[in-house]
């Protein structure tokens, strides 16, 4: 069963269609730049989930548990192995 897409306009004036109630503008998402770091390795939804949760550096990531991350809208289990590897490279692990 397919959902009906509705036309939306973001605060910047971009027009786009969405079939969910997610307010994220896909055009604005493509325009976002990262400063490099571990966030750049993630998909846009996972990156936004972390940023919206206040996780913007590796130390804050290490203070977060995997279970907490999986509860975030836009964050999926596919991102965990990559983040585990990044933490390990910095001598860190997820919080328990």
General description of the model:
One of its GO terms (biological process) is DNA-templated transcription. It holds the Pfam family RNA_pol_A_CTD. Keywords: DNA-directed RNA polymerase, Transcription. Residues 42-89 form the RNA polymerase alpha subunit C-terminal domain. This is Bacterial RNA polymerase, alpha chain C terminal domain. This protein has 96 residues and is mainly α. The chain has two domains: 1-32, no CATH class; 38-90. Helix content is 36%, strand content 8%. It is built from five helices and two strands, in the order ββααααα. A two-stranded antiparallel sheet has the order 1-2. The longest helix has 10 residues, at 80-89.
List the helices and strands and how they pair.
Blueprint: E1 6-9, E2 15-18, H1 26-31, H2 44-52, H3 58-62, H4 66-70, H5 80-89
Antiparallel strand pairs: 1-2
Keywords: DNA-directed RNA polymerase, Transcription
GO molecular function: DNA binding; DNA-directed RNA polymerase activity
GO biological process, one term: DNA-templated transcription
Gyration radius from CA atoms, angstroms = 15 Å
Proportion of helical residues: 25-40%
Report the major sheet: 2 strands, antiparallel
Could you report the average pLDDT, rounded to the nearest whole number? Answer: 88
Shape: elongated
Q: Give the tally of β-strands.
A: 2
Order of helices and strands: EEHHHHH
Parts with pLDDT < 50 across at least 5 consecutive residues:
none
**Class of secondary structure makeup:** mainly alpha
- What proportion strand? 5-15%
DSSP summary: helix tally: 5
Q: Termini, distance in Å?
A: 39 Å
Strand order of the largest sheet: 1-2
Q: How many domains make up the coordinates?
A: 2
Domain RNA polymerase alpha subunit C-terminal: 42-89
Protein name: Bacterial RNA polymerase, alpha chain C terminal domain
Pfam families: RNA_pol_A_CTD (PF03118)
InterPro entries: RNAP_asu_C
